[in-house]
Amino acid sequence: MDPSVVTALGLIFCVSCLLLISAWRKGFGKGKLPPGPTPLPIIGNLLQLDTKNINKSFCELAKTYGSVFTLYLGSERAVVLHGQKAVKEALIGNGDAFAGRGSFPISETINKGLGLLFSNGERWKQIRRFSLMTLRNFGMGKRSIEERVQEEAKRLVEALKNTNGLPCDPTFIFGCAPCNVICSVVFQKHFEYQDKKFLTLMEYLNENLQILSSPWIQVYNLFPSLIHHLPGIHHKVIKNFRALNDFVLERVKEHQETVDPNDPRDFIDCFLMKMEQEKQNPKSEFIIENLVSTTIDLFGAGTETTSTTLRYGFLLLLKHPQIVDKIREEMDQVIGQNRSPCMKDRSSMPYTDAVIHEIQRYIDLVPTSLPHAVTQDVKFRQYLIPKGTTIIPLLTSVLYDNEEFPNPEQFDPGHFLDESGNFKKSDYFVPFSIGKRACVGESLAQMELFLFFTTILQNFTLKPLVDPKDIDVTPISNGFNHVPPCYELCFLPSQNM
């Protein structure tokens, strides 16, 4: 290479280093950005992070830099919030300022900022307001949706009976039930558990969850413009989302041909009616592209969070059979065998309620939440966080707080029980996040978890294939989601059924 070119490149590199270090130093002055490790050019603080367990890296850095600190994820500046006080102060106390959606490049590649989960500004406000209202109108949190969940729980029991007590991997069965519940709300559709198209959709969702939680996607999100053009599993997740997009678009076209403005059947009908109302508004956010993306958001989030919690939860129950015995004892006293569980039972079943909460706390399903962003320059504590800065609320640091939950690394339902055995609520229970970006389906997910867990345990005895003490509950992925290891078990019909 020409010596002059080498010299020029060297000068550019040196200047880049100086500029980055200068910006870093200025950012950590009084009233500026929170403290943090010195970033390197291009890679930022990548060397201080373990991409296989990034939330653990954040917790370690908090020991040095405090509960609010700055990192550079590649060239992207991010402020990490560690601990319940910092997370609550930002997302609740300064809710509007911290309500933006932060950078998540793989999602931006897939949905271009459309829909509910990854949109911003006025688009997000309108889509979220509409979604909440429509979901409530279709029974979210009401008796009508409870009846749908109970019916699906019965179908789930029948599917498990068809395993004939033989070893089975519950991944797809546990995915089918919550998926059908959200399908009934979104596009008034119920699938048979063996429907090939349905199983393909479940495979896409399950595969995407594992890919999005992989170290490769962490690297993609750090260097999207480079990694996007390289071979890798990110192409698979993009392909899967395109297939989901085609599936939903097909449902939308069917609805367009049959929608009755006087009798909306589901979420898609309501969105189409809203589109008709705003067809003269050239700036309307109610367009086909937002309908498809929002439906996929509801479909995916409403399926994978609950199904993964079920799968992880039953693995924990296999490892702790004494906990299952206590749940059965409580169920026998409150429900018996002659009727199906209902939500009214939950208040009379504090131990079971505590177990389900402890499952959600312990598995720490989305450890770093979805990234937030500040919508304006924000004075936060003694710092000034510039508009657009990515905010990472570290939910792990709240769910694993060792003062609120003694011995947080242990699976212990006692974390949610008082001295008298009554259920004990906690402000540190944040698996659905908090604030204006909290999960819109939290009430539905809690209902599904209680009814699915109790209905299954009412009808089956769980038989592990190995000694409980040898069961490994360590997640196989620690990225965007905690993904449980694959396992098999036997569902043996209860003797007194």
From TrEMBL:
Residues spanning the signal sequence: none
Any single Gene Ontology cellular-component annotation: endoplasmic reticulum membrane
EC number, as in UniProt: 1.14.14.1
One Pfam family per UniProt: p450
GO molecular function: heme binding; iron ion binding; oxidoreductase activity, acting on paired donors, with incorporation or reduction of molecular oxygen, reduced flavin or flavoprotein as one donor, and incorporation of one atom of oxygen
Entry-linked InterPro entries: Cyt_P450, Cyt_P450_CS, Cyt_P450_E_grp-I, Cyt_P450_sf, Cytochrome_P450_fam2
Keyword Membrane: yes
Binding site for heme: C439
Bilayer-spanning residue ranges: 6-24
Keywords, comma-separated and alphabetical: Endoplasmic reticulum, Heme, Iron, Membrane, Metal-binding, Microsome, Monooxygenase, Oxidoreductase, Transmembrane, Transmembrane helix
KW Iron (keyword) present: yes
Gene3D superfamilies reported for this sequence: Cytochrome P450 (1.10.630.10)
Subcellular location: Endoplasmic reticulum membrane; Microsome membrane
Cofactor(s) listed: heme
PANTHER family listed in its UniProt record: CYTOCHROME P450 2C9, CYTOCHROME P450 508A4-RELATED
Family statement drawn from the similarity comment of this UniProt entry: Belongs to the cytochrome P450 family.
Protein name: unspecific monooxygenase
Record organism: Monodelphis domestica
